[in-house]
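Q: I have 350 residues here and want to know how they pack in 3D. Can you give me a structure?
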Amino acid sequence: MTFWQRLGRVSKTQSPIVFRWDLDKTYLQTDFDSLRGLVRVPFEKPQDKVAVPGVVPLIRGLRDAATEAGREVQIYFISASPAQLAKAIKQKLALDGIEYDGIVFKDQLGHLVRGHFRSLREHVGFKLTELLKSRRTVPAASREILFGDDWESDPIIYSLYADILAGRIDGEELGEVLRVIGVHPGLIAEAKELAAGAEHGDAVTRIYINLERRTPPTRFRSFGPRLVPTFNYLQTAVCLFADGYLALPAVAGVAESLIEDAGYTPSALVNSMADLVRRGHVPEAPSLAVRDFLTPRGLMPAERRRGLVAAVWHRVVRWVRQAGAPASPPIDAIDYHHLVTQWRALGGGR
């Protein structure tokens, strides 16, 4: 094993890790932008569904790295798509070779039958309650990393979930925020009950938001450093590598997917990683490790230099020696009343 491969090995801490993924726009390239695309979705065969470039090698790499480190890992999917799509989506996941521990869909038909028409497009209450119910089924010491997109309200849902688990938001405030959003009263009551029974702790270490709508990253500042908006899955992979959850060969697999499936060039990948460093989501040292691993494989352009600058090299070595299980970044209290109003005014999702 090379030195750079050793850098990519996961820290051997034993706390279980849970990865939770949204499906539409986060795993699958679902066309909700047009009526034609929306109508076509229920009739797509599993082989017709297309995964977001980079997501398949990323998920596989996360499980492989945790398994190699002897760490318990669980992967869950949550989707606001109707349960009638479950069979095709499960078959698609099987075709992609994705192993998962649970998947849940929204009972859209039930809402339609009961006349809850507003609930057909309001997903906050559904996703939040399902997350809280699922939390009860995982080991209490589990750390969680969440993956969503900017199409719906994943940033708000995931942040609420994280702060409920951390004990930063009480039932009264939660109820008020959900009422402002327009969540059905029955789901508000259920969410408050589930929140009251949740064990407190900083379980959610990171929230990754795929910028499918190309929302400016500055709009997410109010969510704090725990939330990382990314333009592609290489950016996500580099962050996960820096935090010790992904190995360098898996990062390379993500880069290959972006080149083959999304038309990225090696130069574009370099620029993408530089953007991530510039926004302060990953230190310079792990980004240098990624570049030095990807360059000989033709996934990033060769850089003209006489050798590694000593100061930079020492930063890499120091980062490796100090690497351990990443702690949750410090989080200031989020003003959810202001955040929800601002997010929705700027065109945030449902």
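Q: Anything worth noting?
A: The chain has one domain: 3-345. Residues 1-6, 32-41, 108-113, 306-311 have pLDDT under 50 and may be disordered.
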